[in-house]
Each structure stands twice: as C-alpha cells, then as structure tokens.
Design brief:
three-stranded mixed β-sheet; 3 strands; 16 helices; about 5% strand; mainly alpha
Length: about 325
Amino acid sequence: MRPDTPAENVDHTAEAARLERTAGLYPEDAEPLLLQAAAHLELSGDRPAASTLYDRLLSSVDTLDNPHLVRALKASNLWEYGHEAEARAIIEGIRAAAPRDAAPWVIVAESLESHDELEAAEAAFTEGARLLLTDVPEPPYSTHPLLFGRHRVRRMLGAPHDEWDLLADTLHSSPVSLDELHDPKRVWSLGSDNPAELEAEISRLRAELGTYREALSRPFPVAVLHWPASELAELVTAYPTLSADYPSHEEHLATIEASLRELAASGTANLGIVTGTVPSYEAFAASEGVSPGDGDLLPQYATTLAARGRAVAWPPQRGAGCWCGQSQPYDVCHGA
C-alpha cells in the first residue's frame, strides 16, 4: 500500500495529486487511493498535507473499510513531525478499540519501535498477536508481519524465545534465520574490517531484500469472486450464459469456500474474497470490450477488484463475521 520509491526518483507530490484526482473520479475506491496519496506526501516531506488527507478520510469514518488503519497511519505521521502527544492519544485509542485486523497493530507497534519505545512496541505487538492468533490453527498471511515485528523487538530487548517467536521462525521462509536478521549487533558488522563479517552481512541483506521482494510480488491477495444473492440473481437473469458458472447461490458459496481451502492446502498464501456488483461488472466488461456474458471475464474482474483494494482477507480473523454476509461468525458458518 505504501510506496517505497526514493523521492529523488519520483515526483511524489505530483503522484499524490494524481491519486487525489482519481479518487474524485472513483469514490468507491477513495480509501485505498487516498491512503496511497498520503503515503506519497509523507515521502515528499509534506507531512501536514498527509495528515489532512487522513482527516479527510476520517471525516466519513462510517464508510471506511478500515478506520483503525487510517488512524494508525495518521498517528505514525503526526509523531514524525512533532505531534507526539496527539499521536500517543490516537495510539492508545486504537489499542483500546482492539481492532480485528493486523495492519493497525503493526503500524502502531512499529511507530513506537521507531521512537525507541521498545517495551511499549513489544506490548502492542503482543496484544495484537494475543487477540488475533489465540487458538488459531494457522496464522493468516496478514498476521505474519505482526509475528515478525514482535520477534524483532523482543530480540532487541534480549527477551527469551516464547511460542510465538518459535512460530515466527517457522513461518519465516528466508534462508537466513530471524534470529540472525534481528541480531541487535548487526550494525557493528557494517563497520568491520573482517571480510568474513562483511560477507555475512551482505548475505543477510540479500535475504532481507529477497523476502521484501517476495512480499511486493503479490501486493494484493489471490481473490475469489463472491456475489450476494440479489446480485447473483440479477446477473444470471441479465446474462443467462453465466448460469453454467452459477447453478445456485448456495452452490456458489460452497464453491468459494472449497476453492479457498484448496488454494490454502496447496501452499498459496495471502488469500481473499472480493464482492461483485452487476453495475461494476458491466462497467468492467465495457472497459475490456467484452460481453458481460463471457464467463472467462469473471477471474479478470476478481483480480481487478483485488488490485483496487477491494479484497477481504480469508480466512476471517477469529470471532469475525462470515464472509458470506450472514450474521453468524465465520467459524460456525462456512468455517465450521
């Protein structure tokens, strides 16, 4: 979500302005677009303007998909240009709200970590892990940064490994272990005259870069398309050729869960669900110059929605409602 291209290679101010204009044209995608615009403004050094964008989003908090994430980003930005008291107040509010999403916890904890509040950062990482990962058989992809960040901070504090640190080690796929990557003494090797120490540090840096590139290679989830009952009825009525893809709504829901479980079993991480609407699908078909009745267009539509930030992570966090829209929690509905 947050661009990392150095300021000397990109006109971040111009890119932020472009994203703001795009958000005006596509209000349904305003949240991810304005968050990207705010990130560009932060990179350009115009942090007050970034805060203005966060405030703009929070002025319509009821329509936001993830208001806690927006607040966390705002707090992190405020602290960077001298508004520490306000940032701390927002952070405490987020922790009290206990969001069921890993991203706000990671942003809050990393903000504390970057200002040398290591004990508070470890506490925030641990709160998020306890809330989201207790009694969870397999940590969702979105929670991996929570575990890795917690491991890093605890390593700097000299804390002994616990079960979540061991889990982070297991999830970490790089050839260089987390213990080595998070070694507080690594900084000294950069000034070493020992070729072996320098070579070892270069290997560690390459491993970190490889992990980072792997995360960037899939900036949005592998998403499966979901149609609410009313939308699916309208879709197959307007385009009867799609009835072969969707014999019934119940079978459609069962197919979604089965497909996601199959992908997870095959080792595919970062899975999600996108919800379609007939007007949106028709507009996408028109932009592609293809008839909406062409079933081959459906996967492309799902990927486009995911790329626009419309995906919801699967499986839902513990205690969250089911992705199908029913009032029941996921673990007693399609997750049963």
